[in-house]
Write a structure and sequence with these properties.
3-stranded mixed β-sheet; globular
Length: 330
């Protein structure tokens, strides 16, 4: 029988992605690059969809929400991870650890629901195009987005509250690069089987159920697309959904790998890679996927660049003309 030290934990030690010292600098450069690309790419989508009236549509309203969420999602993990990579003492306080866990859970749950709302938007656009503007009016879009954020927040608060009730004794080494819920449960000095079962069933509600409805939505979408007579029309309809399908596959695939395994120990290197993928890599890829696959976004970006180049040239020529006129006075 294992006995536990009664000392209460006031900080945790994060093991990180790997214990190899030779890889620390390389990992720092890679993760910093991914983080900066994620920030710039998602901020660019938010800015472009705001400044161009062509993108003032429900689809881009949800895309703005997703981009803002991805900025917050990756920011909840990467900055602390980068600091720990270069630090000798890789610690995080008790309160900061649970705050990080709560924020990460909240944003992850929100993304599950938000991807569902985006699927519904595509369903209405393709299956009921004549009623699209009537159904997807701004008030409904705001309500759907707000429900996604609230749903993710409630899920995180429940999990965080239950986990805070657990006693944490002498063990404080988290075998992860951030305070993820399953890894924290392994440190509790009590039986956490009920918590793991609750994680499994809540993952069904928060992740599996939305994914199931997304599948049903796309079955109907594909059925409607196949009824389109022209090849060009079918191709255009498919292209509007391709980006979303790719993002759903990336995000839900890794989420299911982590959270839909009842009773298992979530501290393997494979789990770290999966978590790294949906927390760092996917938020970086999302803006690239949507800009490369979306004609409206690419056109808006080209127009914005063209206008900025023209504006800079105009300012340059005006300044040169002003300088020449000033010198001609003497």
């Amino acid at each position: 029988m294992v006995t536990w030290n009664s000392t209460t934990v006031d900080e945790f030690i994060l093991v990180g992605v790997t214990g190899s010292q030779d890889l620390q600098i390389l990992l720092f450069i890679v993760f910093l690059t991914c983080y900066l690309v994620s920030l710039l790419g998602n901020a660019l989508i938010i800015w472009l969809s705001n400044v161009n009236p062509r993108l003032h549509k429900p689809m881009y309203f949800f895309l703005r929400n997703l981009s803002f969420l991805d900025i917050c999602f990756t920011s909840s993990v990467v900055p602390k991870m980068l600091i720990n990579i270069l630090s000798v003492k890789k610690t995080i306080s008790y309160n900061a650890c649970f705050t990080q866990m709560c924020v990460h859970l909240s944003l992850g749950g929100t993304e599950c629901f938000l991807l569902l709302t985006m699927a519904y938007d595509r369903y209405v656009a393709i299956c009921s195009p004549l009623r699209y503007t009537h159904i997807m009016h701004p008030i409904l879009c705001i309500k759907m987005a707000a429900a996604s954020w609230v749903g993710g927040f409630i899920n995180a608060i429940v999990h965080t509250g239950i986990t805070l009730l657990l006693p944490f004794c002498s063990r404080n080494v988290v075998n992860h690069f951030f305070c993820e819920l399953p890894s924290l449960l392994e440190l509790a000095c009590t039986d956490t089987s009920p918590n793991k079962i609750f994680i499994f069933f809540s993952a069904i509600v928060v992740a599996a159920a939305p994914f199931f409805f997304i599948l049903i939505t796309y079955v109907n979408i594909i059925s409607s697309i196949m009824k389109i007579r022209t090849t060009r029309g079918r191709k255009k309809a498919f292209s509007t959904c391709a980006s979303h399908v790719f993002v759903v596959t990336l995000f839900y695939g890794t989420i299911f790998f982590i959270y839909l395994r009842p009773g298992t120990v979530h501290v393997t290197n494979q789990d770290k890679v999966a978590t790294l993928f949906y927390s760092v890599i996917t938020p970086m890829l999302n803006p690239l996927i949507y800009t490369l696959r979306n004609k409206d976004v690419k056109l808006t970006l080209k127009e914005t660049i063209r206008k900025n180049v023209f504006l800079r040239k105009t300012i340059y020529h005006l300044s040169m003309e002003y300088t020449i006129n000033e010198y001609s006075k003497y």
